[in-house]
Design a protein that fits this description.
DUF4235, membrane, mainly alpha, single chain, about 0% strand, about 70% helix, transmembrane, about 110 residues, transmembrane helix
């Protein structure tokens, strides 16, 4: 029988995955629309295609990667906030992230 913490952990994993995928989909649609408005062309379907200019391929990769990554991160953070508000603690996956400055090793000189 699975413990409550195990089932909560699985629930958070599913919730954060769904949130990240949804955010990436919305970000991609908005990005495609913005790209068309800014350039007058559709975004490159495959930036590795030699028919796509190198500058356009690099710009598309940088902009799309950044915006989709940020959207996914924000959605996952929102899912963690919802989980913490519902359960009173962070998901187990986030409890040991090593970001607590009080526990960081002292700098060596």
């Amino acid at each position: 029988m699975a413990s409550s913490q195990d089932s909560n952990s699985k629930l958070y994993s599913v919730l954060s995955l769904a949130a990240a995928l949804g955010a990436a989909t919305v970000a991609k649609k908005g990005l495609n629309t913005s790209w068309r408005a800014a350039t007058g062309k559709n975004p490159p379907a495959n930036p590795a295609d030699p028919d796509v200019s190198l500058g356009e391929a690099v710009m598309w990769a940088a902009v799309s990667g950044t915006l989709i990554g940020v959207a996914r991160m924000l959605a996952t953070r929102r899912a963690a906030h919802y989980y913490a508000k519902s359960t009173g603690h962070l998901p187990p996956q986030l409890q040991k992230d090593g970001q607590d400055a009080k526990k960081a090793p002292a700098p060596t000189s």
